[in-house]
Specification:
Helix content: 10-25%
CATH class of the largest domain: Alpha Beta
CATH topology of the largest domain: Aminopeptidase
Structural class: alpha+beta
Number of domains: 2
Number of strands: 12
Strand order of the largest sheet: 1-2-3-4-5-12-6-11-10-9-8-7
Oligomer: single chain
Number of helices: 5
Strand content: 35-45%
Radius of gyration: 21 Å
Order of helices and strands: EHEEEHEHEEEEEHEHE
Length: 251
């Protein structure tokens, strides 16, 4: 018999470690449970804890955002997910398409599924050239006191007057060693290739810091998607979300 019950985060943290060890890419929602933004649930089969789940309490209340079962329990994934949905009262499910377990739950129990984010990763056997800047008029450096322009710890600055044309960085609250690149080009400097230049430089800087770069953009942000492609990254998955179909909880 499958059962789901609300627990303290510490009770399921060891299972999250197993989940992290199995994933070979960025888990976008990795920080949500430890930050207390989602409610943790233990998943049981015949009284034995075999997995865990998380349901948003902030930002997207009532949305399942994490789901894991130990390998020997995965044939019961639909029984466990049904128990979770009934115990939590969840109304939505979100999943990374490159996390097949939760994605299968979404396909089984959701309707009105839509793509919310596009996920990017390093290309296989990526080799960055020594010089990646397409424009000789700018250089890449760390942010210094007095720098203005877009936010970020790293900037592209013009060589002649020092003006910041783009800036960005990499967030590290994801499953290590993965990080999340972000960048912004000053509005008056767009469509000049600075965004893709900055992506390539941020990839190099994050790898120099011992991290593996990853990134994401909104599904309808075609400009960011093109910039990440031109910066050398490849699409590796999507975040999709759907509404729980109560008819699928029966049987």
């Amino acid at each position: 018999m499958a059962r789901a019950r609300s627990v303290a985060f510490a009770d399921i943290d060891h299972l999250r470690s197993r989940h992290r060890a199995e994933a070979d890419f960025q888990i976008v929602r990795d920080s949500i449970l430890p930050r207390g933004l989602a409610e943790p649930f233990a998943l049981e089969l015949d009284g034995e804890v075999v997995g865990y789940a998380g349901v948003w309490t902030e930002h997207f209340p009532g949305r399942v955002m994490e789901f894991y079962l130990v390998p020997e329990a995965r044939s019961h994934r639909h029984d466990c997910s049904r128990a979770l949905l009934e115990a939590s009262g969840a109304v939505e499910i979100e999943a990374q398409t490159n996390l097949p377990l939760l994605h299968s739950v979404l396909r089984r129990f959701s309707t009105d599924v839509r793509v919310e984010n596009i996920l990017f990763a390093e290309p296989p056997r990526a080799e960055d050239p020594l010089s990646t800047l397409s424009s000789p008029h700018v250089h890449f450096r760390s942010r210094q006191p007095g720098d203005d322009g877009p936010p970020g710890d790293w900037v592209l600055a013009r060589r002649d007057d020092g003006a910041i044309v783009a800036a960005g960085g990499f967030l590290q609250h994801y499953n290590p060693p993965y990080c999340d690149l972000f960048m912004e080009v000053a509005p008056e400097e767009r469509r000049r290739g600075y965004g893709s230049d900055l992506v390539r430089e941020l990839r190099k800087a994050s790898k120099d810091a011992g991290l593996i770069p990853a990134a994401r953009c909104d599904a309808d942000n075609e400009a960011s998607r093109r910039t990440l492609f031109r910066g050398g990254m490849v699409e590796c998955g999507r975040i999709v979300a759907g509404r729980v179909d109560l008819r699928n909880l029966v049987g």
